[in-house]
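Exam revision sheet. Question 4 asks you to relate a sequence to its structure. Input first:
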Amino acid sequence: MANQNVKIVTLVIDGKDVSAQQGQTIMQVAREAGIYIPYMCHVEGLSNIGACRLCLVEVQGQRRLLPACTTEVAEGMVVTTNNERLRKYRQMIVEMMFAERNHVCAVCVSNGHCELQRVAQKLGVTHVRMPYLHPKLPFDASHERFILDHDRCILCTRCVRVCDEIEGAHTWDVRGRGTESRVIIDLDQPWGTSESCTGCGKCVNVCPTGALAEKGRATAEMTKKRQFLPYLTIMREEDWA
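Answer key, structure tokens:
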């Protein structure tokens, strides 16, 4: 049964009048209206943390840019999702993602099935204007089914959130700060020695790049499967109704 107390608000996104339920985010409303906003850390069904900053938008009356995935809509809000300023910011963010680690698409298992690659193409990123850091990062193949390649990780924390919020195991976490940040298993142990990992593969299925992959799968099979996430969203909506 629908919640009769839900308040409807009206706002303008890119010159288009839209209506939304109070509590929805700009990202949700824009997607419902067919308006594209790029993102990397957002996954429908998981909590939003605004980590990647790719979904920054302009809101009239606000001096700073706001992340669309965590900013709730309000009555009379006027939002701009695409202009020259935002395009430059987004291109720079994607370039920094490529420069911070070692993303070499031609030899990546997710080539052609990578969200970072897709967003870069969508935003017109053809080259990186800043120096590559080329960090010497470890590769963890200790798990019998999966691998972890830190070179491909963009620290979106999707794996952390899905393991915590969906699987309830909280095997994953993040250690370090800045360029020294790494996703880790348990207390920074090899994946294959983890006693908390259930081996469900949900972390692999939400990874937007080739950082987490399943052993023995060809490049053409690297499309992510996320059937469990829409189910979670439906259950949450029923709880809120």
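Marking note for examiners. Strands lie at 8-13, 16-21, 56-59, 66-67, 78-80, 139-140, 146-149, 172-175, 182-185, 212-214.
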